[in-house]
Each structure stands twice: as C-alpha cells, then as structure tokens.
Amino acid sequence: MAKKRPQTKAKQPQLKDGEIPVVGAREPCPCGSGRRYKACHGRAAAHAVTELVQRPFEGLPSEGDWVALRELVPAATVELKLKESLPEGVPSVTLATVLPMAWPALRRDDGSVLIGLQNDTASGDISRDLADTLQRALTAQPGTPIQGRRAPADGPRLQELLDPEGAFEPVVHSGFEFWVPDAENSTPEVTASLERANAAAIPTVKLSGVDAAYWCETPDKNHLRWVMPYPEEQLLDALARLHAAGRSSLGEGTRLVGSFRAHGLTVPVWDLPTGFTADDVEKPAAEFAERLATALASDAPLTPDERRARGGLTNRQVTLS
Fold first, then answer.
1. Neighbouring residues of 31: CB distance < 8 A, sequence distance ≥ 6
2. Do 265 and 58 contact (CB within 8 A), yes or no?
3. What is the pLDDT of residue 279?
4. Taking CA 291 as the corner, what is the angle to CA 290 and CA 297, rounded to the nearest 5 degrees?
5. 290 pLDDT above the threshold of 90
6. SS in 3 state form for the chain?
7. With contact defined as beta carbons under 8 Å apart, do 316 and 261 qualify?
8. Residues 296, 298, 303, CA angle at the centre, nearest 5°?
9. 86 contacts: CB under 8 Å, gap ≥ 6
10. Which carries the bigger pLDDT value, residue 8 or residue 43?
11. Cα 209 to the chain's mean position, in Å?
C-alpha cells in the first residue's frame, strides 16, 4: 500500500475568522485547511450573509423614507453625510432610487458618488450590501460604474458609515435627469434612455406636513402611501379603531384600502379621487396623524366592530419585502 502523506497541520496558517478573505465558493479556503471555501469558513460567512434582516434601515435617520425610496418612489435623491470625512476627490455622496443600467453605484467624472437603492442584493441585509457598495465607490476611478457583489459577512453596515445626526431629506424628481449633469446636451442614446425611464415613472410627491408620506398619481385614481414607524400589531389595532368609527378616511371620496408590509414597517394606503392633489391631502393627513396618535395610545380591548375592521385591514395587506 502506498504510504499516507504526512500530516502538516502545524505548518498551516492559523488565521482568525476576521482575517479570512472572501473567495469563490469552490476555491480553496484561504485558511489553509485544504477544503473548499464553501465547506470551511464560507459556511459561516454564507449563513451570516443570507440571514434575513427584517428591518435593514432601523437606526438610520428617517427609516420610513428609506423604505419609501426603496419600494415606492420612482425617482428621488438624497445627499448622504458620512461619519468620516469624504476621501480627497469625492465632493459628495448621493443616494438615488435607481441608476442607469441598474448599476449599484457610479463614480462620476467629477469624483462624486451616486448609490442606487432599488437594486437586487446578494444577501439578506440590504444595509450591509449598500455599505459595501458605498465603500467600493469611494475608492473607484472617476467615471466608473460599480458592479454588484456579495458583501463580506463581517463588513460594515450603513448604520456604521453614515452620520446618525445627518439630515435625510429626499428630493423627489419628476424624471431621471439627475442621472446626467447636462441632460439637454446628452447623446441621442442617453436621451432615448431617459425618455423611456421618464415615461414609466409615476408622478410622486412627498408630503411636507407628516413624515414618510407620498402622494402618487395613476391613470384611474390617486393614492397616498404612508410609511409608519409603529409596531405592526399596535398600528393595525389603531387603524381598526378609526376605521370602525368612520374616521380613517382623508376626506370626501377617500378611503383607507389596506396596507403594504415593507422592510419591517407597515405602509397604509388610501385611494384618493382623480384630481385630489398632494396639496389637497396635506391638511387631512396632518389631522389624521392626530387621530391616529390618540388611537395608538388606547389599550382598551377591541370591540366586535373594531375586530371585524381589523380583520378586513389584515386581509388587504400585501408584503413587498
């Protein structure tokens, strides 16, 4: 029989988990074990990366607006403020709902960075994926788009990179002209791309009187989609109390029709009549916020009518993510 190869465990590099780089699943693990990465250190990394984070934007300023820009708003941008100073040659970092060609990020010719929010992600933690994209964009060459990849399991999250005191003030656009600095002088190809994207964008306006509420216009009727930060069960109870009392509408011809679930938050949705503008809904929304605050403070058991109203609202929930 052939002699067995002598064991060389003592000569294998002894690295801590934090020092093991991420490589392809079928490549040899960098720890020197001789096994493939997916069967060695990649096993724990894959579990950490794929584990779903229910509220990826929790702890960031204006969590509701992050959810809205991820799921509901076609065209918007926000200037981001980082905890650390921007690298030399990077004048600004801007979050955008979507970028051309669905790029995760883009380092513009002038050095500024655009980060796309509405992209497929490789893990169950959108915050970690976006942080990885941001870090790579900050060091990319000007004029370079950033491609998607699996973020390292031990990489930072947005909550570690962004200034927690920085304002998060979305600017909603009617179209995607923010893609290019000089849209009027763009090439025919870029102009055609912009026209197609603009044609598909639903007109949307952010309300100024309440947080994370967005009016939108569709051919048949208009809507208000309002991302709310309250625990789902408590919010549904409060909405049911108002609905049963006939106080859940936003005025004549409006109706609370259900809600979305998105990234751990609940998004009540109202149907509005055609012609009911964002300005028209500002005052009713502020008044509803006051009624909702009172209903949220109640801990009395739901009445039979309120339970039926709650069941109807629950049946009309749609999960976006």
1. 12, 13, 15, 20, 40, 41
2. no
3. 97
4. 95
5. yes
6. CCCCCCCCHHHCCCCCHHHCCCCCCCCECCCCCCCEHHHCHHHHHHHHHHCCCCCCCCCCCCHHHHHHHHHCCCCEEEECCECCCCCCCCCCEEEECCCHHHCCEEECCCCCEEEECCCCCCCCCHHHHHHHHHHHHHHCCCCEEECCCCCCCCCCCHHHHECCCCCCCCEECCCCHHHCCCHHHCCHHHHHHHHHHHHHCCCEEECCCCCCEEEEECCCCEEEEECECCCHHHHHHHHHHHHHCCCCCCCCCCEEEEEEEECCEEEEEEEECCCCCHHHHHHHHHHHHHHHHHHHHCCCCCCHHHHHHHHHHHHCEEECC
7. no
8. 110
9. 92, 93, 138
10. 43
11. 22
Does residue 193 register a pLDDT over 90? no
Strands 317-319 and 255-262, sheet pairing: parallel
* Exposed/middle/buried for residue 113 (C-beta within 10 Å: 0-12, 13-18, 19+): buried
The 10s digit of each residue's pLDDT in 99-126 is 988 899 999 999 999 999 999 888 899 9
pTM summary value: 0.83
Spatial CB neighbours of 184, under 8 Å, sequence gap ≥ 6: none
Dig out the tokens for 244 from the structure.
């049963």
